[in-house]
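Record type: monomer structure entry
Structure origin: computed from sequence
Chain ID: A
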Amino acid sequence: MDEVVCLGAALAARAPRLGHVCVDLASIASSASTDSETAADLGTLAWPETASWVDRMAASSLVGDDLPLHLMGSNLYLDRLWADEVLVATDLLARAAKRPAGVDEGALASDLSVLFPAAGESDLQSLAAVTAVRRPFLGDRGRTGHRKDDDSGPCVGAPGGAGSRHRRATSSLALAAPTGKAAARLEEAVHGEARAMGVDPPLQERLLQLKGSTLHRLLGSTPGTDPLPS
């Protein structure tokens, strides 16, 4: 078998162990690391040229629909991880396309004036809170150090208030992050914002009762249940 194809397959199989769903053949030469404590500059190795590598992977009998590997651009996946990513993406896009019913726009405006008393129309945190109410799905993908935790309190508080005035019985809130440490920071941030925000006592108590969890624990598979109810 083509040794370049074997290398790509090995790196795709190794990616999940490093916390990734795929390997980017275009950047792996500069990002690869070893499992050994001995320092090694892997960038000095004779890595395949990206365009040729991608072409040879695409032509391989291992790559394609219902085959062991899936290639998307320069990203090489194990097929099962590609299928999982498509499933998650499809579900999130479907959720994002919906519009929750029962949002009281007057109550929303009133709550926002409490949550963001000095915010203008261009205030991004205020906009995030509004979006969290008007849409069933919101992602904050700020760069490392962006302090996304600071956005969490108002974004959780707004849907918990005006956004659920007419659907409180079915609304649910959960705090989750990739790691236990991040989950603890998220919980601390939301609790801090809950104490600082001038919200109704019942909502404040609801926010203070929220506990941070890892995504893995939140999404733990339980037959017959949906960890992310619509």
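Annotation 1: The chain is about 45% helix and 5% strand.
Annotation 2: Confidence is low (pLDDT under 50) at residues 162-170.
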